């Protein structure tokens, strides 16, 4: 089922951004975004033509990784930290919802 425009604008997981635009928004290079994919931090969807498409949620993770790398954290370590932080946040949210 295809989403309407009103659904897409509110969906932080909708893959709205090309790799070029995503790199511009995050303030990094397209290669950095590809490396985040290789490090399994973000997994962009692919368009029909095979091009990477990023969501707002993925851009927030990429921005956090860029910030950590800029501060001297190794890319792989930054990705692992962000993944663990994200998992902890989700576990806390599920715990809160189960009360």
TrEMBL record:
Cited Gene3D superfamilies: 1.10.1660.10
PROSITE patterns: HTH_MERR_2
The keyword DNA-binding is annotated on this UniProt entry: yes
MF term (GO), any: DNA binding
TM helices/strands, residue ranges: none
Pfam families for this protein: MerR_1
Record key words, sorted: DNA-binding
All copies of domain HTH merR-type, residue ranges: 16-84
Matches recorded under InterPro entries: DNA-bd_dom_put_sf, MerR-type_HTH_dom, MerR_fam
SMART domains: HTH_MERR
Protein's recorded name: MerR family transcriptional regulator
Lineage summary: Bacteria, Bacillati, Actinomycetota, Actinomycetes, Micromonosporales
